[in-house]
Specification:
Rossmann fold; GMP Synthetase, Chain A, domain 3; 3 domains; four-stranded mixed beta sheet
């Protein structure tokens, strides 16, 4: 790994972008009000034919808050949103905050029973839902299981179909606001503090039952003010948000960061490479964060050169381990000058470390940066002892933006945050002497081959250098002799040819033998969740099935 030189570190440490601001608003409604004052006529959101300036955003969010109050929402009540990225999603969230309530975002890939579980456990009183989406009418998916605490469902787009007398469409909901309820909104906003709970975000259920992470207003604003200044998000940027709003990457590093800086948000409902490339060219998008899958899919598009994407100025990636070759390809093939990476998880508000775009390409490719101001990062062994720099250990975080706790689960909170305030992330990482963090893998995302620990992220990074490979995911499969062996699931570049035998032979010449995949599965696409992360459990099932079939 190439370390940043002393000059680079010195510059970063003294750069004003890394200095915390002292005059930040304390709450999310105050942030919207400040933006409306500073940039009243600038477009805050452009969604198809709808353009909402910052002054209008402030007024509309207050109307949503007044309508919620008219429906009986009290300060601290939970209000859920179950919808893809739209302007109504943002208005609903801003209105929830202005009413003093707590926003609960739901993953759009959830089945009805999964959504009901979260609605029930959060005791949400109102649900903002999309109507028709992905071949389903979302309110119907929970119609027979609605928890008793859910009093109203508001359908935010076309396709409203009353499956319950307490359901209403978006326009009817907005008409619920009364002169009396409008007078209450400023009072609710005034009672909020930086420590008031803003959102209750349930972590991914891929590793067990989701847990609700409570986060406050102030830490979100402080963290993503720092993030946006370091990565270079500017007031005149056109920010295409492909990352789902129900995730921190699309919500907090998304429209919250954009509104802090006064940028313009362009919501994108579903990631599809050609649609995104078309929108970048048409809207002159300049700012595009996303997971590696997003950029790999763009690079793999056979007509990439037909799109004018020269407006792209900044890209931020994360959410997964980043192959070093990807950073080079983003700069050279996509023409993005400022490419950087970041690291975080829901339990720390979504952001803990970030690379500076001024760092060398090698640093950006091989690390996820250093701690944002006010954050401590350390790596510890199985006994909780801090390991020396350069040695792997569990990444632990401490700082102002660590979650308030898991909703209704004190035992899980105590397990995640120790008595000294350290958040145990479950990620394996290495710190260098300059404080730059490299994530090795998840503690649980590992397989053991003949006594050797194999980390898929490391093997994926090595395989990504193969010229025929567009995307790769490595999984561990059971093996009678070795216990477990690696399987490389591969998507080839357009027009490329590669056999399993040739890839295994290539791997033997590029990595230690125990890291070499014993099996290769060629795929046209990977199963992904709504955050564009590869669903490795599904890949294991697919690979196991194909191996059994080939044996017979």
């Amino acid at each position: 790994m190439t370390l940043p030189n002393a000059k680079q570190v010195s510059q970063a440490l003294t750069d004003d972008r890394w200095t915390p601001l002292a005059d930040l608003p304390a709450t999310l409604p105050a942030m919207i009000q400040q933006a409306a004052s500073l940039y009243p006529l600038r477009a805050a959101i452009i969604d198809g034919g709808v353009s909402i300036d910052y002054a209008d955003l402030w007024q509309r969010s207050q109307t949503v808050a007044a309508s919620l109050i008219a429906l009986g929402i009290e300060a601290g009540d939970r209000v859920a949103i179950w919808a893809p990225n739209t302007y109504e999603w943002i208005l609903a969230a801003c209105g929830i905050h202005a009413s003093g309530a707590v926003m609960v975002p739901l993953n759009t890939r959830m089945k009805g029973s999964e959504a009901v579980d979260i609605l029930d456990r959060s005791q949400a009183k109102v649900l903002f839902s999309i109507g028709d989406f992905l071949g389903h009418y979302f309110p119907s998916m929970i119609a027979d299981m609605r928890p008793p605490t859910l009093q109203h469902v508001v359908v935010m787009r076309d396709g409203f179909n009353s499956v319950n007398s307490q359901d209403m469409d978006w326009l009817n909901f907005l008409q619920k606001a009364t002169p009396q309820s409008r007078l209450v909104v400023p009072q609710r906003i005034a009672h909020l503090t930086e420590n008031s709970t803003a959102d209750l975000m349930f972590t991914s259920g891929t590793t067990g039952r989701p847990k609700g992470v409570m986060a406050a207003h102030g830490p979100t604003i402080r963290a993503f003010s720092a993030w946006s200044r370091v990565v270079g998000l500017q007031p005149d940027d056109r920010y295409l948000i492909v990352n789902p709003f129900f995730h921190s990457f699309g919500y907090k590093a998304g429209w919250v960061a954009a509104f802090i800086q006064g940028a313009t948000v362009y919501p994108e409902q579903v990631f599809e490479a050609e649609a995104v490339l078309t929108r970048i060219a048409k809207e002159k998008i300049s700012f595009l964060p996303g997971p590696p899958t997003l950029f790999l899919s763009m690079l793999a598009h056979p007509k990439l050169n037909a799109f004018d994407i020269t407006s792209l100025r900044v890209a931020v990636t994360g959410s997964a381990n980043v192959p070093p070759v990807l950073i080079t390809r983003m700069r050279e093939e996509l023409g993005i000058d400022n490419v950087t990476t970041a690291y975080g998880l829901t339990e720390c508000g979504g952001c803990a470390t970030v690379c500076d775009p001024q760092d060398s390409a090698a640093t950006v490719a091989s690390t996820c940066g250093r701690a944002i101001p006010g954050t401590e990062v350390r790596c510890v062994d199985a006994n909780g002892k801090v390991v020396p720099n350069g040695e792997p250990g569990e990444v632990q975080l401490r700082g102002y933006h660590v979650m308030q706790g898991y909703f209704g689960d004190e035992a899980a909170t105590r397990e995640a945050i120790d008595t000294e305030g350290w958040l145990h992330t479950g990620d394996v990482g290495v710190l260098d002497d300059s404080g730059y963090l490299k994530i090795t893998d998840r503690l649980k995302d590992m397989f053991i081959l003949g006594g050797f620990n194999c980390y898929p992220a490391e093997i994926e990074r090595l395989l990504a250098d193969h010229p025929a490979i567009a995307q790769v995911a490595v999984i561990g499969l059971p093996d009678e002799r070795m216990g477990e062996v690696g399987c490389a699931c591969v998507i080839l570049r357009e027009g490329a040819e590669l056999s399993a035998e040739n890839l295994i032979a290539w791997s033997r010449s590029h990595m230690a033998n125990y890291k070499v995949p014993r099996h290769v599965l060629f795929c046209s696409q990977f199963p992904l969740n709504a955050s564009n992360k590869v669903l490795k459990r599904e890949l294991i099932g697919i690979a196991t099935s194909q191996l059994l079939t080939s044996k017979h």
